[in-house]
Amino acid sequence: MSVAALRAEFPVLETCVYLNSNSTGALPRGVARVLDRYWATMRNWRDDAWTGWLDELDGYIGALSEFLGAPTGTVVTDTNLTTLLGRLATCFDFGGERTKVVTTDREFPTVPFLWRGFAKYGAERVVVGFDTAAVESAIDERTLLVCVAHGSYTTGAVLDLERIVARAHEMGALVVVDAFQTVGVLPLNVRALGVDFLLGGAGKWLCGAHTGFLYARQELLPTLRPAATGWFAGRDPLSFRPADDWAEDAQRLAGGTPIPLTAMMSRVGLDLLAGVGAQSIREHSLRCTERILTRADEAGIAVRTPAAPERRGGVVCLSFPGDEAVKKRLVEHGMVCSWREGLRVAPHIYNTVDEVDAFMDALISERGLVRG
Predict the structure, then answer these.
(1) What's the rounded Cα separation, in Å, for the pair 266 and 30?
(2) pTM reported for the whole predicted model
(3) Which helix (H) or strand (E) holds 338?
């Protein structure tokens, strides 16, 4: 697909310069057809519509598994990452010798809040800086889980997952990765990385909507018996009989009645990204973010994101006096970005370097007005 054809799939680009994929990814126009089709079903309700909806949900899970390099039966979806992480946490016993959960000080608020709650069951949260070496050093023989974000939502930095996985497995610990800020903009192959669990969602770089997912390493599935569960986690939920055991695959980490619509919506963007290819997306992202770094350096703007390509994800975080006010002024003028302890700029595959330059021109101008 040509650049022009790809950009034509995203209507929001007709109205603004959209550099906000780390917060809310742009939705392709094909989603409208999904919504129309869903409404056509709903206005003429029939229970047997569920058969088709569940087939589409399974189709999305299959496409997502392929995108992640995950074996069939190792991915499950739900409404959001928080729900899935909490359910996964109930699979573990914190009453033994291993009670530590190693995490960082740059996690999305879900993570510290959730593990603080699990302290009542014996979980001991160990917090270190968002640094690969710091995480490695914190893992010891009492560590049960290492629960870290692949990419920081406030700095754009990324951790070296291969090193962390190697250290954790050496010490007998398991690794839970929050990849919401990287999946869709960085290549991620769960088998190659060796991660035990990987979570993410469709609403940012995957150009989808309101769908979280969890990958669980195949060898671990028989050991996972969540306390927080639902009827769709049973061996044969559509028999509508009480479950006698959990499903054999990742479906055992499902909950109650699913919401297929968001997966149906998210499939459209996923297919577009898969057609481009993860490596091409990453190469384009690096070109765009390198341009932001260059322009920021020329303008004397502080950058919170590491300069080394291997240490940054798809977002560049800028910091200067009045940056939050500048963000608001930029959005008012059709230059869409976000602010989290700094101004975040997140070009995706549907953006161009020319758009990045236009955005940086506007940012530098607005910064001058705020300083003046």
Answers:
(1) 10
(2) 0.95
(3) strand 338-339
On the 0-12 / 13-18 / 19+ scale of CB atoms within 10 A, 144 is buried
CA-derived radius of gyration, the chain: 21
DSSP assignment of 93-151: --SSS--EEEEETTS-THHHHHHHHGGGGT-EEEEE-S-HHHHHHH--TTEEEEEEESB
Instruction: Give the tens place of pLDDT for each residue, 194-232.
Output: 999 999 999 999 999 999 999 999 999 999 999 999 999
- Residue reference for tokens 């992480």: 85
CA distances (Å), origin 95, targets 99, 100, 102, 307: 7, 11, 16, 42
Q: Determine the straight-line distance between the first and last CA of the chain, rounded to whole angstroms.
A: 45
Percentage helix, strand, coil for the chain under 3-state DSSP, each rounded to 5: 45, 15, 35
Cα 310-318-297 angle, rounded to 5 deg: 75
Q: What is the pLDDT of residues 357-368, one digit of tens each?
A: 999 999 999 998
> Strand, helix or coil at 228?
coil
- At position 240, the amino acid (one-letter code) is F
Proportion of the chain above pLDDT 70, given as a percent? 99
Residue 33 CB partners (closer than 8 Å, separation 6+): none
- Calpha distance 290→294 (Å, rounded): 6
Give residue 189's pLDDT band: very low, low, confident or very high (50, 70, 90): very high
On the 0-12 / 13-18 / 19+ scale of CB atoms within 10 A, 259 is middle
